[in-house]
Give the backbone structure.
Amino acid sequence: MLPQAYWRQIEGAILDEKVRVGELLRAEREGLFAAEPINASDFGGAPSLTVRLMRATPEPVLDRYLEASFLNHPGLLRCFGAGTVEFSGTQFVYAILERAETTLADVQSERPLTVDEARELGRQLIEALSYLHQQDLIYCNLDPSTVVRSGERWKLSEYSQLRLAGRGYSGETRRMLAVSAGTPPEAWDGIVSPAWDVWGLAWLLAGAVSERKPNPREGRGSARRPLPEPFATIISECLNAVPSERCRLTRIAELLGPAASETAVPSTTAAARREDEDDDVQPPRRWLRALTPKQALRTAIAFVAGFLVVALLTYHPNRSSGAATIANPQPSVSPAPPPPGSHPNGEADRALDSNTPNGLLVRWANAIRTRNVDQQVACYAPTVFAFYGSGPVTPASIRERRSRAMSRFSTVRRLDISDVDIQMKGPGTAVATFTERWDFAGRDPSSGKVQERLGLRKIDGKWRITSESNVKTFYKNGPNPQS
């Protein structure tokens, strides 16, 4: 953990010519700062921003935040972009985020939530988690410090653990068992699925209503009280060590009941409704039954770690009250490229999986940002049926066009993609529509804002671009670098 004095030196820095780092808001495992946009229109009129700085690690944290920048849901704190920067010899990943008012941890440090407040918390988080699961993404990070309040909504805010559902993550996930009770036993085997978030949500809700205020002068357990309903039942049905036997988000929503307005909360998306509907409702189980000795040991470790975290939920270190703005801000800090070899083989691509439309769109945009023609061409199908008014064309033809365009531009100052709307037209076809803003410098500088549309198709098990077109031009200076 870096001292506050270190974090305060970063105040006043300019990141990627987009934001000026303001006063320090929190200094814990990472630094959270207020932020001032250089150009307010770059962030869709967001009323206020923050910058989160995280020390770079071998995990693909940057890729995960870039993935989050394509997500759009009222239950997710908006991510406007991410990058890397070096400061005083230390490399950081930074993320530009919508500013929240408080965290669930802050609220719990003052008092537990009422049953009704916790019900509403659960309903809103289920909506956000269901949206992520529809994208084949798992949050993997449910904790009072990562759930924030913005206006009338609770939102998920921290995307460093965002992962695609799958296996093979044990190198990352085993250590998480000792960190948070929101980590389920299957983390030992590196298994990531929607059941992970079910476990985490159960622990989060239980901790939110817990009135456990340890007193060193009282005996152990004297401050513990039984959980109120429906949270006792949620714990009973969700803390099953076998992921396939855990209850679903739909079941938790059913236990939480409708909103006070008697309007049913849209707690499930189409993807959540498809979650094994034949066994959506499962009777309570004793979560340690039918375990092998090995499973029981792993689960016991997770449970003990979880108990310690929940028991200490009301103890939080004092937050920084926010520092005064530096009178003479230091010079701009230039973003640095990720260090070579910073990710294990395959890990950087795991968050940008080509087998999801979102992942393909992220890789395509990143390839343009880095001026990597090979990676751009790899995103296209063997035949692209429409390409800016012409077609069909081949990847070789697209390579020639993009190479010619890149020879005119020496620097990609910005390439932002927002308002992403991906419509699934079938099991293997989709259409992605989005707003693109760019600013390329060089011999023939170019800038503009357009609405683009990509046709996507799954070919031989991999998503590829089959068409690319301009839907609407808002403004343009110079040639379109894509066409």
